[in-house]
């Protein structure tokens, strides 16, 4: 029995038995992401309804900088590649590779958020405040919520880097990295939808 | 000892599952290049007049990119079907609820 205890202490969740045979953490993360579809679905739908409601202030076509946002979108897309490389490194028990790719992912995410702050500032200077019009309110709410999700992802990534460096992740690190990776990829797929529906398809 | 052996066997099986998750790093890079190319095509619609194909091209690219990331980067294609159910149930519900909501506001009316 002591062999079992030692083994389970070494490998954390691997020794646990669940009724599904699957990791409860992973099931919970997928359920959470499913529920997030409803949150962003509501925000995107609200924007679609209100994007043409502009009585005063600039209209969508006047404030969007498509080339700039395209570069931001590309950066976020590439952060999904670096994230999946971090997961792959974690599965190969390569701590150095894992921390490297997690850090690169966080930096790419920070670049995206920085771009969003710049975009918001430029729009505000052009006269589009949060309460200027229904378009402004729904746009800032949608993209702001997404930006907060990216920021939370960056905090999780950097926390994970610190935890891995201190070697305080109990059990299998690969699952922890994979769970945060799922969240990160979800933030990316939501941006894929926002970029097309909000920026590329004119009101 | 028997229990310990079984637990080790489960553990080894689990690592096999990790390996089956899928793809090599080169495979992930190929997927990323395809996604980047699709993004480039999307952005080109801003500069090039696609005529009546403008909207269908953008919507198809958006959906394909979405499912490529979910299937390959999020490993849903290779993972247990329960995970697919958890995610796609939420996605399906969201799409249905909001398409109906938008239709009730006559969003799709020309």
Overall description:
- Chain A: Belongs to the cytochrome c oxidase subunit 3 family.
- Chain A: Keywords: Cell membrane, Membrane, Transmembrane, Transmembrane helix.
- The complex is a heterodimer of chains A (203) and B (110).
- By secondary structure, chain A is mainly alpha-helical.
- Chain A has a single domain (23-200), classed as Cytochrome c oxidase, subunit III, four-helix bundle (Four Helix Bundle (Hemerythrin (Met), subunit A), Up-down Bundle).
- Helix content of chain A is 78%, strand content 0%.
- Chain A is built from seven helices and no strands.
- Chain A has helices at 2-11, 24-50, 60-63, 66-91, 95-125, 134-165, 173-200.
- In chain A, α6 (134-165) packs antiparallel against α7.
- Chain A is elongated and about 60 Å long.
- By secondary structure, chain B is mostly helical.
- Chain B folds into two domains: 2-77, no CATH class; 80-110.
- In chain B, 78% of the residues lie in helices and 0% in strands.
- Classes of the chains: A mainly alpha (203), B mainly alpha (110).
General form of chain B: flat
N-to-C SSE string of chain A, H for helix and E for strand = HHHHHHH
State the share of residues found in helices of chain A, binned by percent. Answer: over 70%
Number of helices of chain B: 4
Tell me what the CATH architecture of chain A is: Up-down Bundle
* Ends apart, CA distance between termini of chain A: 66 Å
Beta-strand proportion of chain B:
under 5%
- Biggest sheet overview of chain B: none
